[in-house]
Design the sequence.
């Protein structure tokens, strides 16, 4: 996706503070953090969101692996606990249409939801 900013981060066409990368995923700091620590985990394969993703075994496995990066990277970033958020669709508050898991924490004023 040539006009996708997260694909551009994957391709190193625009800068980001990358905290993790492997052959399938990249994690980088959110440019506008909502907590002391706030990063995003994305798949290298362009996928819009959970509303449009295929529900096949490969996709489910990919999302499972992506989710299990959250505790690993949160600990690496010094968090003892964290919150994850996935915005799906315009009406779900999504602004960047390359699926991403928000992972954030560090403050002690998380509102109970
Ligand atoms: P969402 O509303 O779930 O689509 O969230 C998009 C997130 O991407 C927001 O939290 C933005 O602050 C973040 N973001 C947008 N552009 C960049 C960028 N170039 N580098 C890092 N984070 C970004
Ligand atoms: Zn993309």
Sequence:
């Amino acid at each position: 996706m040539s006009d996708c900013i997260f694909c551009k981060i994957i391709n190193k066409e625009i800068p980001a503070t990358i905290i993790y990368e492997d052959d399938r995923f990249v994690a980088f700091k959110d440019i506008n953090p909502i907590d002391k620590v706030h990063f995003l985990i994305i798949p290298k394969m362009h996928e819009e969101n959970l509303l449009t993703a295929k529900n096949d075994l490969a996709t489910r496995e990919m999302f499972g692996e992506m989710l299990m990066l959250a505790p690993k990277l949160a600990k690496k970033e010094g968090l003892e606990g964290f919150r994850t958020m996935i915005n799906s669709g315009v009406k779900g508050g999504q602004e960047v249409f390359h699926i991403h898991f928000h992972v954030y924490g560090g403050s002690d004023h998380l509102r109970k939801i």
About this structure: Residues 5-105 form a domain with the HIT family, subunit A fold (CATH 3.30.428.10). Strands lie at 18-21, 25-29, 37-43, 83-85, 101-105. The CA atoms of residues 83 and 113 lie 11 Å apart.
